[in-house]
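Data card: per-record layout.
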Amino acid sequence: MFVAITRYQELTEADVKHYTAIAPAIDYLILRTPMDTKSLVHWVNQALAHGFPKDKLMIHSDEKVLAQCQLTGIHFREGDPRAARYKQQHPNITVSQATHRATSIRQASNNELDFVLFGHLFNTASKPGQAPRSEAEIQAALEIQDIPIIALGGINTKTINQVPSGFSGIAAISLFATQNLTTLTDLRKAWHK
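The structure for this 193-residue chain is written out next.
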């Protein structure tokens, strides 16, 4: 599974065009942005009008945008109690959650969430000054086999080859924001080998 996450900024028409162009190489695009509900609904509608597949859009914790745009996926921060409640009330919606430790992954699994993002694996500009997860933390996470675990944090064209086996895919911000469809398709093929 390849999960793109938008940069935490106002999304533009250029973003619509870029993410629509790379859509064939990703499974989900998590919309993580400071935009208000009205602006984000407008952006989602723009993306859909440009041909971005609706079933690949995941909103980050904004239930209003999810409902107004009739999306099928939502992502929550680690520890957000809305994730479990939302999945229980809406079993047909794909619900994912960020995790940073094995106990959070187990809890997400017990709450029957669809997948988790786990990280960060490598140094990343998104977490300046914060050390990546240790080898022991990564191993503890990967011992949990009953929910897909997606690697996150500092994954780029060089570090993707260092992601430990056992992860069900990768998630990234910069990688998907800066690479084109050809590069991402090649990375995806290499990942599946």
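Known properties of this structure: The longest helix spans residues 37-49. The mean pLDDT is 95.

See the next section for split statistics.
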